[in-house]
Amino acid sequence: MKYNIRGENVEVTGAIKQYIEKKVGKLERYFDTPPTSDVNVNLSVYNDEQQIEITIPMTNLLLRAEEQHADLYAAIDLVVDKLERQIRKYKTKVNRKVRQKGAPKHIFAEMEKEAIRENGIEEEDDDNFEIVRTKRFDLKPMDSEEAILQMDMLGHTFYVFTNAESGDTNVVYRRRDGRYGLIEPS
Length: 186
Hints:
By secondary structure, the chain is of the alpha/beta class. It has four helices and eight strands. 37% of the residues lie in helices and 27% in strands. The strands form two sheets. It has a four-stranded mixed β-sheet with strand order 1-2-3-4, with helices on one face. The longest helix is centred in the middle third of the chain and has 31 residues, at 72-102. It has helices spanning 14-25, 72-102, 104-118, 144-154; strands at 2-8, 38-46, 49-57, 62-69, 141-142, 158-163, 169-174, 180-183. The radius of gyration is 24 Å and the shape is extended. The protein folds into two domains: 2-100, Double Stranded RNA Binding Domain (2-Layer Sandwich); 141-183, SHC Adaptor Protein.
């Protein structure tokens, strides 16, 4: 793993950097092959409160945790514990799915579905998507910049609006890298 350690209102000394690398490096034991992703660490100090935020983007998983404490080294320990819990939870979910796919009830269900398909009998779709809330609102004509401002003001990650220039319904959204995207009909 490559470490990108940044300090805000705090100097990142060699001892702090070494401690972070040692603690976060222990997370590698949870993986068959060590992840090759970057480890982004942000340290900051506000009013005698030490804050650390660690983000580890990986292929199928984004590990992210933050913690505040009066002692920076204690905050590092706490945030690594959070990351460890996230990894264990994710691995448990993955292992459970693998075990369930090989379970006898799953095998019998697959055989039953295959028999139904061979006999030409239509089966009902068992993937039910339940809509738990419906919202209705008027779409105001605006440009994409105003829509981004509205989205940020509301604290949402996307915003639906009518494009004032084209009259089409568009969506602006916040991307993971912090920039914005626009979805338009073709």
